[in-house]
From TrEMBL:
Pfam families: NAD_binding_11, NAD_binding_2. Its EC number is 1.1.1.60. Residues 3-160 form the 6-phosphogluconate dehydrogenase NADP-binding domain. GO terms for molecular function: 2-hydroxy-3-oxopropionate reductase activity; NAD binding; NADP binding. The active site is at 171. Belongs to the HIBADH-related family. This is 2-hydroxy-3-oxopropionate reductase. It comes from the Bacteria. Residues 165-285 form the 3-hydroxyisobutyrate dehydrogenase-like NAD-binding domain.
Length: 290
């Protein structure tokens, strides 16, 4: 594989493209807002003015967009991926999306002799920049083996979880865990400040014990200084939690902690925090009047 069509140049997508280029792949990209691509174009990415042109001549087409509705719109319909990609092309959706939609895309792709994978990622903006993302893959073994060099350019922990939709189920499981961790760390920090302790001193002391986590190392420092710049948007996390709750209902399992996290983040979004990073959850605990 040499040429990669890439659709979606948000916080994650831009860094993922850079790592693909570092690994020697040529990237031709499309995004709805060309301004987002300016720096990448200067670095050697080829600009495409449509989804169809991003698919033309590509050995693989990678997508990472916002919502399941965005995924659906770029895969199905005239001039979209399933119609435009050439037979034998890998089509890899790395958006966190619906497992059922991933299954539907896979069925339609296979009918057109394409190689579909759902491969959502975790690791945030830091993991995307450093090429250390965890990549959770659903799809066939042959497609996975073909795509492995691409995944290795963008991530470290790469695992095929099963057939179509399995990558999405695995990512939703990850988001369920994150929701609880975020609440725990925000509550810890609010308690620490109310008790008059030095928050950074405490963080450094407990990080090597049972409370240690990626969140404690990477997001709690941002909470302490009230840096809410987005590595992962609250509005996108709300989307993920809604997908997880929807899937949980289909699987007949109750997730009360996730339901609470979703309510707290919804409250923040209602009060203007939707474009902030998930670490802004601490605002609820610090003020509880947001």
């Amino acid at each position: 594989m040499k040429t990669i069509g890439f659709i979606g140049l948000g916080v994650m997508g831009q860094s993922m493209v850079r790592n693909l280029m570092k690994a020697g792949f040529h990237v031709q990209a499309y995004t709805r807002t060309k301004d987002k691509a300016v720096d990448l174009l200067a670095e050697g990415v080829s600009w495409c003015d449509s989804v169809a042109s991003a698919c033309q001549g590509a050995d693989a087409v990678i997508t990472i967009v916002g919502y399941p509705s965005d995924v659906k719109s770029i895969y199905f319909g005239d001039g979209m991926i399933l119609q435009s990609a050439e037979p034998g092309t890998l089509v890899i959706d790395m958006t966190t999306s619906s497992p059922i939609l991933a299954e539907r895309i896979a069925e339609a792709a296979i009918d057109r002799s394409l190689l579909p994978l759902d491969a959502p990622v975790t690791g945030g903006d830091i993991g995307a920049k450093n090429g250390t993302l965890s990549i959770l893959v659903g799809g066939g073994e042959y497609a996975f083996s073909r795509a492995l060099p691409l995944f290795e350019a963008m991530g470290q922990a790469i695992q095929r979880m099963g057939y179509a939709g399995s990558g999405q189920y695995a990512k939703l499981a990850n988001q369920i865990a994150i929701a609880g961790i975020m609440m725990g760390n925000a509550e810890m920090l609010a308690f620490t400040k109310k008790a008059g302790l030095d928050a950074e001193q405490l963080r450094q002391t407990i990080r090597g014990g049972a409370a240690g986590s990626w969140t404690l190392d990477n997001l709690v420092p941002r909470m302490i200084v009230e840096d809410y710049s987005p590595g992962f948007f609250i509005k996108h996390f709300l989307k993920d939690m809604a997908l997880a709750l929807e899937s949980a209902e289909q699987l007949n399992i109750k997730l009360p902690s996730l339901e609470l996290a979703s309510k707290l983040y919804s409250l923040l979004e209602e009060n203007g925090y939707g474009d902030n990073g998930t670490q802004a959850l601490v605002e609820y605990y610090l003020h509880q009047d947001v």
